[in-house]
Amino acid sequence: MLKTLALWVLGMFGLLQLIQIDIPEPPKQIDPGKEIKAPKLIMAMLKRSCYDCHSYETKMPWYGHISPISLEVKSHIKEGRKAVNFQEWSNYDDAKKQKIYKGIVKTINFRMPMPMYLIVHEDAKLTREEREIIKKWAESHIKEEVY
Ligand code: HEC
Fold first, then answer.
1. Alpha carbon 104 to chain centroid distance?
2. CA 112, CA 134: separation in Å to the nearest integer?
3. What is the CB neighbour count within 10 angstroms for residue 73?
4. Closest by alpha carbon to 77, among 13, 138, 20?
5. Burial 36-70 (b: 16+ CB within 10 A, else e)
6. How much is the mean pLDDT over the chain?
7. What is the rounded CA–CA span in Å between residue 35 and residue 47?
8. Neighbour-count burial of 110, counting CB atoms closer than 10 A to its CB (0-12 exposed, 13-18 middle, 19+ buried)
9. Cα–Cα distance measured from residue 139 to residue 136, given in angstroms and rounded to the nearest whole number
10. Is 84's C-beta closer than 6 angstroms to any atom of ligand 1?
11. Are 66 and 59 a contacting pair, CB within 8 Å?
12. Is 86 in contact with 46 (CB distance < 8 Å)?
């Protein structure tokens, strides 16, 4: 009875592995000239806390390939890159850049990096001071609205 149950669970887990999402392949040649340009300190923080989802430089953990966790992880990467890819920065027009800078100011205190991600990525946590520095930097790029 227990054996049947165990086999059943194992079988379901196996079947689950057939459900996968694909993240679009990063370009073969990533042009470093397209990356956002920011002071060293800012770049270091973005790379540490944001690049897993907002660049092509995703460090995928082993469990990131195991369904159903992979469905969650990969959709974050896919959606994250779509929202902001710091390595595609020069492709964005002014309006999109402004939207991102504003988005950073808006999200840096609570939503970004994603809280769920921080549970398993201690090293990506930003201190209150670090958040303030990122916020100030983003704010400095926001142009006054013209009415
Ligand atoms: C675990 C993946 C993940 C990490 C890490 C992450 N993001 Fe995101 N980010 C997302 C996803 C997914 C979206 C799109 C969905 C959404 O807006 O919640 C997003 C959206 C955004 C947006 C657009 C949101 C808006 O409302 O305008 C900004 C700006 C942003 N992220 C900034 C950052 C910054 C800055 C960091 C690092 C400090 C960061 N993110 C770290 C996954 C992530």
1. 13
2. 12
3. 24
4. 20
5. bebeeebeebbebbbbbbbbbebeeeeebeebeeb
6. 95
7. 11
8. exposed
9. 5
10. yes
11. no
12. yes
* CA-closest residue to ligand 1 atom 2: 53
| Alpha carbon of 83 to ligand 1 centroid (Å) | 7
Q: Is 80 touching ligand 1 by the criterion CB < 6 Å?
A: yes
Q: What is the distance in A from the centroid of ligand 1 to the CA of 19?
A: 25
pLDDT tens digits for range 17-57: 999 999 989 999 999 999 999 999 999 999 999 999 999 99
| Cα separation, 96 vs 2, whole angstroms | 56
The helix (run of H) or strand (run of E) holding residue 5 is helix 2-16
Q: What is the 3-state secondary structure (H, E, C) of 59-126?
A: CCCHHHHCCCHHHHHHHHHHHHHHHCCHHHHHHCCHHHHHHHHHHHHHHCCCCCCCHHHHHHCHHHCC
pTM: 0.93
Tally of residues, the chain:
147
Tokens linked to 77: 């990467």
